[in-house]
């Protein structure tokens, strides 16, 4: 039996808590022997989304087999929120010293940092606060733009939805990948993501613009990135000429429509390869006729990531 103890901090984000909690409770439903416990420094814990949660105000005694998870909280700067009493930080520190595992979601990494558990370790957090985390804990190595980082028995994640990825990873470590896959399927998770995958997908990275026509073109490419798409088809959808669409698309995203489609293909192929698919099979799955083009595009991406 493994106990998962969530340490709740005022103004915590519900999904930072609910995502991992759902993973471990679903694992328990599958007979994997998890129990969930919620503790805090106060009985009533307000959340960033306006719901107040009830937690055990007494920090429980822990064993080495227990997992402590600190969900993140709303904070524009880490130093302004998430304060924990010295006794709580001592509790976290002692659990790790006794052989236990500690994990954080989003700003929860700051709690581990305050407990001294990030010193000399690799870690990550949400991209909005990763620079501040690096400044606050200069002895830590903050890995930017990844979903989660495992360094011994300290596991940190980027936050929000990536807390699900972190929890699925921990289930896979303890019970095997097949068990984690069953949990993910039960939760209707689209795909289990590796920790080194980027925090934002290509579909999101190039959406920070206000061109409706370009968004419509991206919608079509996103849903058919593995198919041959003619520029005339995209132009028809947007109501623009091919030349005007190409000009607006490039201005809005920094990429031509073809390069954008290739980036989606590469990202999906990298995901498949990271989960054991061969380069040849991944190339075919994302729409390339053979692996040569995929290899060339992957090499170009590595040499020129901003291209």
From TrEMBL:
UniProt keyword terms in alphabetical order: Transcription, Transcription regulation
Single GO MF descriptor: sequence-specific DNA binding
Location of the HTH araC/xylS-type domain: 215-307
Domain of life the protein comes from: Bacteria
Pfam families hit by this protein: DJ-1_PfpI, HTH_18
The keyword RNA-binding is annotated on this UniProt entry: no
CDD domains xrefs: GATase1_AraC_1
PANTHER family: ARAC-FAMILY TRANSCRIPTIONAL REGULATOR, HTH-TYPE TRANSCRIPTIONAL REGULATOR RV1931C
Protein name: Transcriptional regulator, AraC family with amidase-like domain
């Amino acid at each position: 039996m493994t106990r998962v103890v969530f340490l709740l901090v005022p103004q915590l984000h519900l999904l930072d808590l609910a995502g991992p909690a759902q993973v471990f409770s679903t694992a328990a439903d599958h007979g994997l022997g998890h129990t969930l416990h919620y503790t805090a420094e106060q009985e009533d814990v307000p959340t960033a989304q306006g719901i107040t949660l009830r937690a055990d105000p007494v920090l429980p005694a822990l064993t080495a087999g227990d997992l402590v998870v600190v969900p993140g909280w709303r904070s524009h700067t880490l130093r302004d929120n998430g304060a924990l009493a010295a006794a709580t930080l001592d509790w976290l520190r002692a659990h790790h010293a006794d052989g236990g595992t500690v994990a954080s979601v989003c700003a929860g990494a700051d709690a581990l940092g305050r407990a001294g558990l990030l010193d000399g370790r690799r870690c990550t957090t949400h991209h909005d606060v990763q620079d501040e985390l690096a400044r606050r804990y200069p002895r830590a190595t903050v890995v930017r733009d990844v979903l989660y980082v495992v360094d011994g028995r300290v596991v940190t994640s980027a936050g929000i939805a990536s807390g699900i990825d972190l929890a699925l990873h921990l289930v896979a470590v303890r019970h095997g990948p097949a068990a984690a896959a069953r949990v993910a399927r039960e939760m209707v998770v689209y795909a289990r993501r590796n920790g080194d995958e980027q925090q934002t997908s290509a579909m999101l990275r190039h959406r920070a613009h206000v061109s409706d026509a370009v968004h419509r073109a991206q919608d079509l490419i996103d849903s058919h990135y593995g198919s041959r798409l003619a520029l005339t088809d995209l132009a028809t959808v947007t109501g623009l000429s091919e030349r005007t669409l190409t000009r607006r698309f490039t201005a809005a995203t920094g990429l031509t429509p073809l390069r954008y489609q290739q980036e989606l293909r590469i990202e999906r192929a990298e995901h498949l390869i990271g989960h054991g698919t061969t380069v040849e099979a991944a190339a075919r799955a994302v729409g390339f006729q053979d692996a040569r083009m995929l290899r060339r595009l992957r090499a170009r991406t590595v040499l020129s990531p901003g291209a």
